[in-house]
């Protein structure tokens, strides 16, 4: 499907929701998930116990604005359902939702809530469904305010063979007098051995700047975790040999990163699939001060966005968020020889503005494998809609096509 826009920069979505084969590419199927708001961003996919495929994302006017809420749609057959809003705190920007089918048959929705563009105020909330997302229980606080910073999450919960739950998070540190920009973010794992009743925080050592930790169980007694880099240099990786109770320090992989989200999943054959932007700061021609430099902040907290500190490594915002690439590793994430672009473009993201069609990023991807073996991917297009694509592993390896 070619990305089409109107003269004003708005996406021409065509018939939304209906998954169709792509002309000239028999192995690829795709659709735009029906949007509910001006902005749609940060999709997460999850196969559900009833056989459908769920997708959640956040939508509203613009990230950081208090009308940002979590939305949910499901794929049954070849149709995505009309979106349903699942959070409604109009005093917070509610972001990064994910679905977690718990072993007891319940379905959890987990998401963050922050004041304006201040991720260092973020808390984590949850709701639970007993009927595969047809109805939902009350909103509860999973992780409340923390001294000196906020708690953020993006990636799915991993359930280990020993029954432990691992929820990767990162800590958005506050700096006196300064707005959050990400310079001091570090990663951790919230570990529960009692089905989410209590949690222990396990810090990832030397993880400054490594966020969006995406954990995969390699089924060989080890876990691997892959990270977005605030420095916009590379995807990083760390490993655990004790069920997530300790981690090695993250190290750069061969894959580039542009300070935008990635996601990894283990396939049934043991291979890993990753979706990411195949770009880094080396591809940037401009740089933003912060992620939220184009919204008004009405929190009146007296903090300011500081100038970029050239004496230290600092968060790099503004690297083009394109192309959107799907990669395969056959050796536990040590090498990634197979890569193919799902989408190409200039990836312009010096603004998050969707109302005027100024943003042109492909970003925040999610990838899962269905029971039929196909790879299911969802990602942001221009911050206006979520696109769904289904391909096979062979499609990724067929780079001549």
TrEMBL record:
Ranges of residues in domain Sialidase: 51-377
Xref: CDD domains: Sialidase_non-viral
UniProt xrefs under PANTHER family: BNR/ASP-BOX REPEAT FAMILY PROTEIN (PTHR43752), BNR_ASP-BOX REPEAT FAMILY PROTEIN (PTHR43752:SF2)
Name of protein: Exo-alpha-sialidase
């Amino acid at each position: 499907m070619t990305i089409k826009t109107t003269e004003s920069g708005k996406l021409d979505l065509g018939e939304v929701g209906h998954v169709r084969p792509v002309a000239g590419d028999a192995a690829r199927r795709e659709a735009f998930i029906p949007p509910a708001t001006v902005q749609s961003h940060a999709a997460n996919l999850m196969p559900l116990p009833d056989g459908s495929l769920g997708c959640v994302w956040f939508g509203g006017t613009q990230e950081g604005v208090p009308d940002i809420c979590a939305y949910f749609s499901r794929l049954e057959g070849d149709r995505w359902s009309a979106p349903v809003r699942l959070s409604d705190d109009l005093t917070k920007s509610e972001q990064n939702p994910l679905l977690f089918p718990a072993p007891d048959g319940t379905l959890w929705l987990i998401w963050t809530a922050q004041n304006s563009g201040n991720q260092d105020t973020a808390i984590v909330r949850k709701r639970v469904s007993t009927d595969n997302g047809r109805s939902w229980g009350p909103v509860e606080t999973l992780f409340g305010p923390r001294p000196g910073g906020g708690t953020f999450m993006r990636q799915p919960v991993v359930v280990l063979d020993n029954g432990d739950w691992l929820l990767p998070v990162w800590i958005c540190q506050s700096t006196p007098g300064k707005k959050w920009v990400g310079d001091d973010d570090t990663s951790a794992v919230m570990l529960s051995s009692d089905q989410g009743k209590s949690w222990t925080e396990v810090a990832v050592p030397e993880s400054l700047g490594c966020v969006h930790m995406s954990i995969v169980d390699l089924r060989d007694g080890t876990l691997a975790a892959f990270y977005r880099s605030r420095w916009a240099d590379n995807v990083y990786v760390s490993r655990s040999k004790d069920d997530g109770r300790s981690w090695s320090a993250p190290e750069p992989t061969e894959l580039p990163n542009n300070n935008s989200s990635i996601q990894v999943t283990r396939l049934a054959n043991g291979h890993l699939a990753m979706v990411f932007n195949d770009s880094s700061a080396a591809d940037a021609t401009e740089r933003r001060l912060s992620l939220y430099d184009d919204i008004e902040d009405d929190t009146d907290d007296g903090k300011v966005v500081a100038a970029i500190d050239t004496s230290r490594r600092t968060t790099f915002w503004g690297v083009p968020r394109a192309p959107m690439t799907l990669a395969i590793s056959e050796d536990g994430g040590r090498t990634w020889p197979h890569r193919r672009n799902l989408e190409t473009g200039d990836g312009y993201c010096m603004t998050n503005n969707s109302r005027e069609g100024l943003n042109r990023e492909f970003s925040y991807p999610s990838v899962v494998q269905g029971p039929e073996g196909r790879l299911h991917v969802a990602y942001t297009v221009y911050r206006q809609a979520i696109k769904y694509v289904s391909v096979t592993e062979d499609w990724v390896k067929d780079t001549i096509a």
